[in-house]
Design brief:
The complex is a heterodimer of chains A (638) and B (229).
Chain A lengths: L1 E4 L2 E4 L2 H23 L3 H9 L3 H30 L11 H36 L7 H23 L24 H29 L12 H33 L11 H34 L7 H14 L15 H29 L8 H24 L1 H7 L3 H31 L5 H27 L16 H31 L29 E2 L6 H7 L6 E2 L13 H17 L3 H20 L4 H6 L4
Antiparallel strand pairs in A: 1-2, 3-4
Helix pairs in contact in A: 3-4, 3-5, 3-15, 4-5, 4-6, 4-8, 4-13, 5-6, 5-17, 6-7, 6-17, 7-8, 7-9, 8-11, 8-13, 9-10, 10-11, 11-13, 11-14, 13-14, 14-15, 17-18
Chain B lengths: L1 H7 L1 H7 L10 H34 L18 H29 L11 E8 L2 E5 L5 E3 L1 E5 L4 E7 L4 E5 L3 E6 L5 E5 L5 E7 L11 E7 L1 H9 L3
Parallel strand pairs in B: 1-5, 4-10
Antiparallel strand pairs in B: 1-2, 2-3, 5-8, 6-7, 6-9, 9-10
The chains are: A mainly alpha (638), B alpha+beta (229).
Chain lengths: 638, 229
């Protein structure tokens, strides 16, 4: 659609126009709501907060909003592919490429990763008896960087400049010669900024877990989710740094004419190496925290200690370690030679061993227990068979000669959706139902939760199981249509039905959230008869927790205390807790970086310079403030 | 052993013979299909074990009114069991690794153009067409004619971005990358007309970067070579 504005004609496709109108309506409704209910102070508070639970909530909130956006993209993809030679709305060639690029990028970087970081933010300090993360200010910076990156990436779509390069952004297609527009720059800068935030949060998490555990909480007594968060943070530190470097080099190629990823002195395959050295650990960055969630949930709702705790921890560490040695299995068809193809096939197979150990230990945790089918537990139980199905196709993919057929076909699409949805997404849902009382003080409705679970699980298998066959039938990924004669019609139609079933299940979740907050029925500290420290503090977790500080004497300290009918022992001797003081600086800093990136995209370097100075100024101000001063004075240190 | 495995999987094969990749038209493709079946067979063992245990445990240990006040026994672990499910998968994977290595070593695309026997075909990819050149210099766009029963060695290159050459019915895919030539051998082709596609996203018209492979009799192939260039 052409729109005339200030004498200029702007071409606005109908999908972008629809998005503007939709967002506009939502925006007006929100503004009216905020005004009427006088919620402005709440927003101002959250903009300045450095409290771990509140930042965690923000992470989950915005992660979820981006999840909806990316999910909507998935429905567009499936609508276009429902029938052969289909012409659904605008989603062919350019627009289709944009929509699968956004779907992948948003799901990985702006939905799954931040929602997991949010859960870590909320649960890890509560599980180990810390009053906050080690660096509350840095935590806020991390979140607002993610927010800025996500907003920048989304902005591209609203300006009709969404990237069309696939979430993997393979060079030389992403180079200045083949995608000269600003579209690809939005990908580079959006992912870069939010990745920076992710690295900062990972550092924070590591220091918190190492330094701020309650007395008696030895490493060997930590809940599995905390263990998984620790290992994940190490993975993030290494993997996201590699990604940052790759994006940095790509930025130079695009903006300043260097040749890192061109054939003109560089090599496009370098991008693939860098990307997958990040990309494969990223798979485990998404999966490990989910494994941690399932360990805690399965143990809680089986009323039984986790089976083989040491093996569970060791296998997480092993998976984390091995995840850095398998990246080239994404590149079997590049022609790295028989030696590399064999080596990476073997290392990839090895990962199946610690993963298998985990599966069997979960099964034997259930064995002999009393299984309570709460919604959280249902998601955890649904995970086991679904994930094993994704796991076995993973082993099949590691067989490199067979991978020549699987690679970049719908078989791979089916495989990675099986593993990521089964682990990360089911994990996030499980955690949402499990920890919702700790976040808001209310428990989500169980009946609607069950609708959500069953519809999602059925939709998930209905979508992705047939897609294995589509791949073997010869359907490559990232194509916007197929011929009626290829025998793909029925498969694709079933997959589309499945995708919409998942969509409906998300509506159930919405209704559930609405209903729960309508009812506003407080639940106590410990609605699930929990085992670990987070169920010892109030729901929702207050800003000042663990006073007095409990002493941890077991892997499941609260459970043991409850069984022995005694309160938990407490102490006044513990490490000084981090101080969380509100500040608007993290927000300002992220907005400066947003402006910097936005002006870099449009080559307005002098504005970028000013924005850069803004970031630097924030850093200087921060360096000169010490919120602990009053505390030091109170104990006469100064 | 190979024959035995194929024999065991025969009933399954019959049901899936219409699936392109599992009904290959070259020796190379047959080896790949064999690996797919073999790995799937091994993995089915894992799948069945997990599903059976899962179903049994979930049903047997579910919460019921009678078990309302049950507190499960405090089990920390079981070394023997845990060793079992560490060692058995390792053995399973070794069984899988042997044919994987054997076939992969044979089939892997190579960087340097080596003197292979068989017909040398040049494959030049470019957004969004394929140019195939025959040994005698004849070129054709989006149409590749090959003789039945022969081995072919593909020499793949790209003029712009990365593409991937894939004829699902014949064999696995291989990337065409700018700035280098990769060779890939497909052995013993069977007669027929097959659909070929670009399998690496290469731009907005990626979907339309398709081609046709015609494997014809040797006589017809010779005739094709002599036709007007």
């Amino acid at each position: 659609m052409d729109i005339s504005l200030f004498g200029k004609t702007i071409n606005l496709p109908s999908d972008v126009l629809a998005a503007w109108i939709f967002t506009g309506i939502i925006g007006i409704v929100l503004v009216v709501y905020i005004w009427k209910k006088k919620k402005l102070p709440v927003i101002w508070e959250y903009m300045r907060t450095t409290n771990h639970r509140k930042i965690g909530t923000l992470y989950i909130l915005f992660g979820f909003i981006f999840f909806l956006r990316a999910g909507l993209d998935a429905l567009f993809i499936r609508s276009q592919l429902a029938l052969p030679n289909n012409d659904f709305w605008v989603f062919q060639s350019q627009k289709y490429s944009e929509v699968f690029t956004t779907h992948g990028t948003m799901m990985i970087f702006f939905a799954a990763t931040p929602m997991l970081l949010g859960l870590m933010n909320i649960a890890v300090p509560l599980q180990i008896g810390a009053r906050d993360l080690a660096y509350p200010f840095l935590n806020a910076v991390g979140f607002w960087l993610f927010f800025a990156g996500g907003m920048l990436f989304n902005l591209a779509f609203f300006l009709n400049k969404a990237p069309a390069i696939g979430w993997t952004g393979y060079a030389p297609l992403t180079g200045p010669t083949h995608t000269p527009g600003v579209n690809t720059d939005y990908y580079v800068f959006g992912v870069q900024i939010s990745g920076l935030g992710t690295i900062l949060t990972a550092l924070n998490m590591m220091v918190t877990i190492i330094r701020h555990r309650a007395p008696g909480m030895k490493l060997t007594r930590m809940p599995l989710f905390t263990w998984a968060s620790l290992i994940t943070s190490f993975l993030i530190l290494v993997a996201f740094t590699v990604l940052a470097i790759a994006l940095y080099l790509l930025m130079f190629d695009r903006l300043f004419g260097t040749n890192f990823f061109t054939t003109n002195g560089g090599n496009p395959v370098y991008w693939q190496h860098l990307f997958w050295i990040f990309g494969h650990p990223e798979v485990y960055i998404l999966a490990l925290p989910a494994f941690g969630i399932f360990s805690d949930v399965i143990s809680t709702f089986s009323k039984k200690r986790l089976f083989g705790y040491p093996a569970m921890v060791i296998s997480i560490v092993m998976i984390g370690f091995l995840s850095f040695m398998v990246w080239a299995h994404h590149m079997f068809t590049v022609g790295l030679g028989p030696m590399a193809n064999t080596f990476f096939a073997i290392t990839t197979m090895t990962i199946a061993v610690p993963t298998g150990v985990k599966i069997f230990n979960w099964l034997f945790t259930i064995r002999g227990g009393v299984i309570h089918f709460s919604t959280a537990m249902l998601f955890a139980l649904g995970f086991i068979p679904s994930f094993v199905m994704g796991g076995v196709t993973g082993v099949m993919l590691s067989v490199s000669a067979a991978d020549f057929q699987f690679h970049d076909s719908y078989f791979v699409v089916a495989h990675f959706h099986y593993v990521i949805l089964a682990s990360t997404i089911l994990g996030i849902f499980s955690a949402l139902y499990y920890w919702y009382p700790k976040i808001t003080g209310y428990a989500l409705d169980e009946k609607l939760g069950k609708w959500h679970f069953w519809l999602f699980l059925i939709g998930f298998h209905l979508t992705f199981f047939p897609l294995h066959i589509a791949g073997l039938q010869g359907m490559p990924r990232r194509v916007f249509t197929y011929d009626p004669g290829e025998g793909l019609t029925a498969i694709n139609f079933i997959a589309t039905i499945g995708a919409f079933t998942m969509g409906i299940s998300i509506l159930c979740l919405f209704w559930n959230l609405f209903k729960t907050h309508r009812k506003a029925e407080k639940v106590g500290n410990d609605p699930w008869d929990g085992r670990t420290l987070e169920w010892y503090v109030a729901s929702p977790a207050p800003e000042h927790t663990f006073d007095p500080m409990p002493i941890v004497e077991d892997i499941d300290p609260l459970w043991v205390a409850k069984r022995q009918n005694r309160p938990m022992r407490t102490t006044d001797h513990h490490r000084i807790a981090p101080l969380s003081k509100s500040s608007i600086l993290p927000f300002v800093m992220a907005m400066c970086l947003f402006l910097l990136a936005f002006t870099m995209i449009y080559h307005l370097y002098w504005v970028s310079a000013i924005a850069g100075i803004g970031v630097l100024a924030c850093m200087v101000i921060r360096s000169l403030t010490d919120e602990r001063k009053s505390f030091y004075r109170s104990i006469n240190w100064l | 052993m190979k024959k035995l495995a194929v024999f065991l999987l025969l009933p399954l094969l019959a049901g899936c013979s219409s699936i392109t990749v599992l009904d290959p038209k070259s020796t190379t493709g047959e080896e790949q299909a064999y690996l797919i079946w073999f790995s799937l067979g091994l993995m089915m063992i894992v799948l069945v074990v997990v599903f059976v245990l899962f179903a049994r445990f979930v049903i047997k240990y579910r919460y019921t009114e009678e078990r309302k006040n049950d507190i499960p026994e405090d089990v920390k672990g079981n070394l023997k069991l845990e060793l079992t499910w560490t060692i058995l998968p390792i053995i399973l994977l070794i069984v899988l690794a042997v044919p994987t290595i054997a076939i992969t070593y044979n089939q892997s695309p190579k960087m340097a153009a080596e003197a292979d026997d068989g017909i040398d075909i040049g494959v030049a990819a470019q957004q969004f067409t394929w140019t195939f050149s025959q040994p005698n210099g004849k070129t054709d766009q989006n149409k590749l004619v090959l003789p039945e029963g022969e081995d072919v060695t593909l020499h793949l290159s790209s003029k712009d971005v990365i593409h991937s050459f894939w004829v699902p019915a014949l064999a696995g895919k291989i990337d065409a990358i700018p700035g280098r030539t990769v060779t890939y051998e497909i052995k013993h082709l069977q007669k027929g007309t097959y659909r070929g596609k670009c399998a690496e996203y290469c731009g907005t018209q990626h979907t339309n970067m398709v081609f046709e492979v015609q494997v014809v009799s040797k006589k017809a192939y010779q005739k094709y070579l002599k036709e007007m260039k």
